[in-house]
Design a protein that fits this description.
Number of domains: 1
Strand order of the largest sheet: 3-2-1-4-5-6
Structural class: alpha/beta
CATH superfamily: HAD superfamily/HAD-like
CATH class: Alpha Beta
Radius of gyration: 15 Å
Number of strands: 6
Oligomer: single chain
Shape: globular
Length: about 180
């Protein structure tokens, strides 16, 4: 059953926080919030939408960090956002551990489908913001109304509905599309 709520899904590394490059954010202290994200989340809330993180965190499955460390990183993210009057409604993470709470890897739309079922989200009214082809492809496969790419270091082979140069541009675009 499709719900009626709207959502903006966010990739984490490279969108919500500064990209760690080829590696992973392995500790809460290494997590640095990108500019424009708190403002975007406040706007999303004002427009009666949800904001949910869908992230691949394979560093857990590779043994580079524990699930507890990942939880601590996400707690820091939410704390930094709360200090600016913002927060995510939920966080879905693929950790490549195969645990019961694990979600399929991008571009599989499983994390979006799980969130849609849990929160009554209509994908046809929802968006995703990512910095990689797999994020954009995930949004397409989930049947989202549109996709937003933050241009970074990654090669672009899958076009997005909108492409932005920086996370600081997200709030202005959201004002137009939500």
């Amino acid at each position: 059953m499709i719900g009626s709520r709207r959502c903006v899904f966010f990739d984490r590394d490279g969108v919500v926080n500064a990209s760690p490059g080829e590696g992973y954010v392995l500790s809460p202290d290494a997590f640095h919030l990108n500019p424009g994200i708190a403002e975007a989340l406040r706007l999303i809330r004002e427009r009666d939408c949800l904001a949910i993180v869908v992230t691949s965190q394979k560093g857990v499955g590779k043994g580079l960090m524990s699930r507890e460390t990942l939880t601590n990183i996400h707690d820091r993210m939410q704390s930094l956002l709360a200090a600016e009057g913002a927060a995510f409604d939920a966080i879905y993470a693929h950790t490549a551990t195969g645990g019961d709470e694990d979600h399929p890897a991008k571009p599989d739309p499983g994390m979006i489908h799980a969130a849609a079922e849990s929160f009554g989200i209509d994908p046809r009214l929802s968006w995703i913001i990512g910095d990689a082809d797999r994020d954009i492809e995930m949004g397409r496969r989930a049947g989202l109304v549109g996709t937003i790419r933050i241009r970074g270091e990654k090669e672009i082979t899958v076009p997005a509905t909108h492409t932005l140069e920086s996370t600081t541009e997200i709030p202005d675009l959201l004002r137009l599309i939500l």
